[in-house]
Design a protein that fits this description.
Blueprint: E1 7-8, E2 21-22, H1 37-56, H2 63-76, E3 83-85, H3 87-98, E4 100-103, E5 106-111, E6 114-120, H4 125-128, E7 136-140, E8 143-144, H5 150-157, E9 164-170, E10 178-183, E11 185-188, E12 192-197, E13 200-205, H6 212-227, E14 234-238, H7 247-255, E15 262-268, E16 275-278, E17 290-294, H8 301-311, E18 316-319, E19 327-333, E20 339-348, E21 364-365, H9 413-422
Parallel strand pairs: 13-14, 14-17, 17-18, 18-21
Antiparallel strand pairs: 1-2, 1-19, 3-20, 4-11, 5-6, 6-7, 7-8, 7-9, 9-10, 12-13, 15-16, 15-20, 19-20
Length: about 450
């Protein structure tokens, strides 16, 4: 079986988490290792158990599902990020990687068992049809939504471009349900959002898909023009609650702020599988100061960027400790039967540190004021809290931290602290990035 060039860098952070792959080549081939005679005896045991279940179980089981469950059980026993993906899950992962699909253009969440609109995406069928934030979707093409999972509801709304879908919507301001018919269109997820905040450029990365670096470059150009190169004090790079994504995009985003030096290395079981990724000459920001915001929801590819800029003292990392996912997963397609997602390497920051089950410690810790009703619910378990996670050797593991970001920017203490830092207003916190950890 040939291992193909796909690497996963997302983290399990809940329903909306990102699990995507990169085209960066990794583990193009490995030497086969012969299984022992005892292993073959155990496989014979598996065959015996399978046959007994197939013939004697109280009801006739689906044999394909039995095999899939057995394969997935084997993989999930390894660590939280190894698993089997059936053909549909594999296709969904590829859709997330591209950041482009046929759909309606609404960000939704599940709240009290209901599918609620977070926001319609600009210039999509949803926004053009007048769908609003906080609308509750009660019906999709005559099918009741109540009882569906969030993923099932999303699957029903996605589909071939130009195909119609009818939604029934409940809105607080309207006594009667609202029915709309929309034609699906090509939806492009915009992973980069930016705005000028006076003399500071604010750039938010929500995920690392195929469009992230191009979006970042366009945002930097726009902010530089809008604010003016002579007036611009620096940039805030917001990676909070960004669960990860493509390795090659994480490398390119890091490279956007670096002129030279290593960005990240990946080290597998065999020494010849080690790969190192280095920056190329050219800093898109021309050396302007950078503040990187992280919290307990910043994972994997986000941690690669934060770790690289922190180690090179190119940016000040501000917020709370990140998630701590320092492992890499390779994707191995299995013909028409889905794909194998297997943890194959750890990654290391330029100074040689692994953040697995530890996370990135900010240079400046800034806590948010969490509403009473959300206290305790804002804490992430972090990688160290996941059952069966890869252990760190001879180093202290750490749990998660808060992943709360106030919806009102005026109440966002971390964002305010970042703007103050760039404007030279220090409020009792050290303003020098920590020294890189020696290799």
């Amino acid at each position: 079986m040939r291992k193909v060039s796909l690497v996963l860098l997302g983290a399990f952070l809940g329903v909306g988490s990102s699990m995507v792959a990169t085209q960066t080549r990794l583990l193009s081939g490995t030497s086969a290792v012969a299984a022992s005679a005892e292993t073959y005896r155990q496989l014979s045991l598996f065959g015996d158990v399978f046959e007994k279940v197939r013939t004697d179980y109280v009801e006739k089981p689906e044999e394909a599902k039995l095999i899939e469950a057995a394969v997935n059980g084997m993989l999930t026993s390894l660590d939280p990020h190894s698993s089997y993906m059936d053909s549909k899950s594999f296709r969904d992962m590829q859709v997330q990687t591209r950041g482009e699909f046929g759909g309606l253009g609404i960000e939704v969440t599940m709240e009290d068992g209901l599918i609620k609109v977070v926001t319609p995406i600009d210039d999509t069928p949803a926004s053009k049809a007048g769908i609003l934030s906080n609308d509750v979707i009660t019906q999709i093409d005559e099918d009741q939504v109540q009882g569906l999972t969030l993923n099932q509801a999303v699957d029903k709304m996605r589909g071939p471009v130009n195909s119609p879908v009818k939604l029934k919507i409940s809105r607080k301001e309207s006594k009667d349900p609202i029915e709309v018919v929309l034609n699906r269109d090509v939806i492009k997820i915009k992973p980069v959002r930016s705005r000028a905040e006076g003399d500071v450029g604010y750039v938010r990365l929500t995920q690392f898909n195929e469009q992230t670096f191009d979006g970042l470059r366009a945002a930097i150009d726009k902010l530089n023009t809008e604010i003016g190169a002579d007036k611009l004090k620096g940039y805030v790079l917001d990676l909070r609650n960004n669960p990860g994504g493509l390795l090659d995009q994480a490398v390119m985003v890091s490279d956007a702020f670096l002129d030279r030096g290593e960005i990240v290395s990946t080290r597998g079981r065999n020494p010849d599988e080690t790969q190192r990724f280095s920056a190329k000459s050219g800093d898109l920001t021309k050396g302007k100061p950078i503040v990187v915001l992280v919290n307990g929801g910043s994972a994997s590819a986000s941690e690669i960027v934060a770790g690289a800029l922190q180690d090179h003292k190119r940016a000040t990392v501000l917020g709370t400790r990140s998630f701590g996912k320092g492992s890499v997963q390779s994707i191995i397609p299995l013909g028409g039967s889905g794909a194998l997602r297997l943890t194959t390497a750890r990654y290391y920051t330029p100074s040689g540190r692994s953040i697995q089950a530890k996370g990135i410690e900010p240079d400046q810790e800034v806590l948010q004021e969490v509403p009473d009703e959300l206290k305790g619910k804002d804490e992430t378990k972090g990688e160290a809290g996941l059952k069966g996670h890869l252990k760190q050797k001879d180093t202290e593991e750490r749990g998660g931290s808060s992943a709360y970001v106030p919806p009102d920017p005026a109440k966002d203490k971390q964002l305010t602290a970042a703007f103050d830092f760039l404007r030279g207003i220090q409020k009792g916190a050290a303003n020098t990035p920590k020294a890189a950890v020696p290799n």
